[in-house]
Amino acid sequence: MERRDPELSPEQDFYRHPELYDLEYEGLVEDMGHYLRLAKGLERVMELGCGTGRLTLPIARSGAEVVGLDRAPAMLDRLRARVRAEPRLRVSLIEGDFRDFSAPGLFDLIILPFNALHHLRIAEDFLSMSRCVQTILKPGGVFALDLVVPDPTFWTRDPEGQHEIRWYPDPEGGKMKSWENGFYDPITQINWVRYHYKRASGRLQEIRVPMRMFYPQEIQGLVRIAGWTIRRMDGDFMGNALRAGHGKVVLELTVRP
Question: Is the pTM of this model over 0.90?
Fold first, then answer.
């Protein structure tokens, strides 16, 4: 079988379906404490890939002014509605691509959380993004991000199987079954994740998320080429070292003098 996914259709684009995205991820808290600690006491924070505001809103509630950037209008619309419900928060939103963006003013902290790095396809994307971040980061400011360490065991799974089955309330009514599968392209280093939803009505919907994988040594090289100094590099959000069998790289970067 030839494992090749075509370009995404609107129906398959996760970020056109914020209600499904929130079903999968709204309750995620693993990274929350980490990014709140980094933002504590700071005046201005920017979040790249802010989505529906899972981190944007808690950081703003902690007292910081937050600027969120995302390229998906549907995700931003959902977040705007949430911001309107909390008018005391200092949150502004920009529709744009974090590979090439600008924002007014300077920031104490810029974050690229929750594996958003994997939306970059090629090395130049990281370099371009870094130039944009460095332009608006205050002297001594921090660029913080996290990514997934590639796990070869995922790539040997049946690409058409039903993995990680879960059940959610169906936004259309009733219960909805969800599972995932996909495949890895070793040439492009893209892991094609497919989310499947079987609606209560029996209707099937497939979402596809292409994630470009980065290896720890590779990302360290890109970071240095892009002009960053690694302030911290950990293997999880608790500050533990990178180690086999644990699937995160958590980075704090500063501009190299």
Answer: yes
